[in-house]
Amino acid sequence: MSKYQSFINKTIDANQEIYKLINSPLCDSYFIKTTQGAGGDFSLGIDLKAEEIFIKHLKNFGQISSEECGIYGKGESKIIIDPIDGSDNFLSKFPYFGSSVAYEVDKEVVVGVVANFANGDIFVRDENNFKVAKLDSLNFSKVIQNSFSSIGLFERAYKSNAIANKLKQHKIKYRSPGAVALSLAYASYADFVIYEGVMRDYDIKAALFLNKELNIYQDDFVTLVCKDIEKFENLKRVILGR
């Protein structure tokens, strides 16, 4: 059992509460944009409610840094949260949105949890294991890399200046589902995950920790995660033009 099991359990409890809420009838206030959050985007009612639930469950574990409220509380440890990853998808009833939670101790991420509120997947990584389950059953199993994947995930492709054209020229297939942390959580299943642009801690802290055994390239221009080293090196050449 992980020495951070209490934190993991409380994070799962929070995700289950939000998952149950989202899958119940919701009033219009959850779909209305409110104030601008600390991450720069305008928060939906569901963002604020999910954040409230995470704070309730996790406030005793350290200082919380959330995309909506910014910094909450004090503590030596730090919890980085995106309460709803893919808010626009939620707003548009497109089934691809979730949450991202990273737990930092001594400035090192020791736990990453990413959940998909559309299908109930929850990914958890601690110092020992990387596992996945469904939020309604919690029958965890080890994450197994998918050797049959035929497409990658390219987040923020709609803003791409150069990479989209390079991928097109090389006939590289991808989808752009619109939830960065969630797409990174599925990196073991997809061919690759690419994000073009500056990444925020809310987007990457938990998900990159989930993928620490995969091949990762990151600079100020692009983030690339790929499980296969040969494909990884080829994609780097395509993207960087080397």
How much of the sequence lies in strands comes to: 25-35%
Number of helices: 7
Q: What is the CATH class designation of the largest domain?
A: Alpha Beta
Helix-strand category:
alpha+beta
How far is it from the N-terminal to the C-terminal residue, by CA? 45 Å
Q: What profile does the largest beta sheet have?
A: 8 strands, mixed
Helix coverage percent of residues?
25-40%
User: What Rg is obtained from the alpha carbons, in whole angstroms?
Assistant: 17 Å
Mean residue pLDDT? 92
Question: How many structural domains are formed by the residues?
Answer: 2
Overall 3D form = globular
**SSE ordering:** HEEHEEEHEEEEEEHEHEHEEH
The parts where pLDDT drops under 50 for at least 5 residues are: none
CATH fold descriptor of the largest domain: Fructose-1,6-Bisphosphatase, Chain A, domain 1
How would you summarize this macromolecular structure in one to three sentences?
By secondary structure, the protein is of the alpha+beta class.
Show the helix and strand layout.
Layout: H1 5-22, E1 33-36, E2 42-44, H2 45-58, E3 63-66, E4 70-72, E5 78-85, H3 87-91, E6 98-105, E7 108-116, E8 121-125, E9 130-134, E10 141-142, E11 152-155, H4 163-169, E12 174-175, H5 180-185, E13 193-196, H6 201-210, E14 215-218, E15 222-226, H7 229-240
Parallel strand pairs: 3-5, 11-12, 11-13
Antiparallel strand pairs: 1-2, 3-4, 5-6, 6-7, 7-8, 8-9, 9-10, 13-15, 14-15
Helix pairs in contact: 1-2
